[in-house]
Amino acid sequence: MSRVLVVGAGVVGLSCAVRLLEAGHRVDVVARDLPGETTSAVAAAIWYPYRAWPQDQVLAWGSRTFEVFTALATGDSAESERAGVRLVPGTEVLADPAADPWWAGAVPGLTRTQPPAGYRDAWSFATPVIEMPLYLRWLTTRVEELGGTLTRLNLSGLPTGADVVVNASGIGARLLGADLSVSPVAGQVLYVEQVGLERWWLDGAGPTYVVPRSRDIVVGGTAIEGEWSRTPSPETAQEILARATRLVPALAGARIVRHKVGLRPARPSVRLEREGRVIHCYGHGGSGVTLSWGCADEVVALAAS
Ligand SMILES: Cc1cc2nc3c(=O)[nH]c(=O)nc-3n(C[C@H](O)[C@H](O)[C@H](O)COP(=O)(O)OP(=O)(O)OC[C@H]3O[C@@H](n4cnc5c(N)ncnc54)[C@H](O)[C@@H]3O)c2cc1C
């Protein structure tokens, strides 16, 4: 078994670390930002393929991840509560009639539903909702229980001295992988108090999404290409909330709890390949959570090759 260094403690790095440890490797995770400080901590997060390519691989990684999250959500209830993973029904609305989405095959039970006023099409399905602050803590605990470590370390290049290095540095791969094809797509969200909402809602235009969690509701969002600022804009927050309230009127008057911006690590295609001792796994765009377990399985296979 190999000594593996995983660079990155977002959802991708931690999921890879868990699967590598389960496969019997010795694993140390190093990261500039600890899990709660990463882009992953900002994710909404629902299973939903968004701004990640190529479609055939995204479908395969996404299907596998859907299965793992579903097993977690429907298995031992104490464990799914600790992990913060639930299957939640919801609806995507569309301005115009459309064919089934290209990823429909990954989702059991996607059905056409009556669109609300102002929309001309809609589909509904139950999908995993992942409460990232809880889930990242759960993943970190899994890493530690399995004998792995997590250390804060700001690297200026990929490390040497391990049999295998997994580069799961997200947007940081621009520097660590010298890869200028990774670029930020900034997303702003706000969190409001729970007002009894039990369904998620999504309108790709905007994009506008409303994701209920146990104690709050994530309201988004934006997708600004090339934007590096992580400072939330009050005007943008107002505009997001206005859009979201048109979609989900129950949000009217809900108390705002906080604001966040995250930088999605966008790339024309996810980079998942082995280059000597380095396995690159980054560039998941708006789908890092959605693809996490499928990609982690592939990293384990590459580590054995
Ligand atoms: C507003 C918003 C909503 C989202 N909603 C969803 C959703 O609903 N579903 C979904 O699937 N996805 C969603 N995403 C996308 C998802 O958050 C990302 O795809 C995912 O977080 C990428 O994970 P990652 O582990 O690759 O990167 P990150 O979480 O960014 O982690 C990268 C890690 O690498 C480390 N690193 C980088 N550079 C260095 C360095 N030089 N030295 C040491 N360590 C370094 C960082 O410190 C960090 O620990 C959303 C994103 C945003 C912004």
List the defining traits of the structure above.
binds flavin-adenine dinucleotide; 15 strands; 6-stranded mixed beta sheet; globular; 29% helix; FAD/NAD(P)-binding domain; 305 residues; 9-stranded mixed beta sheet; alpha/beta
Short structural summary:
This protein has 305 residues and is α/β, with parallel strands linked by helices. The chain is built from 7 helices and 15 strands.
Can you give a write-up of this model?
The protein has 305 residues and is of the alpha/beta class. It has a single domain, classed as FAD/NAD(P)-binding domain, CATH 3.50.50. Helix content is 29%, strand content 29%. The chain has seven helices and 15 strands. The chain has helices spanning 11-22, 55-74, 77-83, 132-145, 173-176, 234-247, 288-304, and strands at 3-7, 26-31, 85-94, 111-112, 121-130, 149-152, 164-167, 183-193, 200-203, 208-212, 216-220, 224-225, 256-266, 271-275, 278-282. Strands 3, 4, 5, 8, 9, 10, 11, 12 and 13 form a nine-stranded mixed β-sheet that branches. Strands 6-2-1-7-15-14 form a six-stranded mixed β-sheet, covered by helices on one side. Helix 1 runs parallel beside helix 4 and helix 2 crosses helix 7. The protein is globular, with a radius of gyration of 19 Å. The termini are close together. Bound molecules: flavin-adenine dinucleotide. Flavin-adenine dinucleotide (FAD) binds next to helix 1, helix 5, strand 8, strand 13 and helix 7.
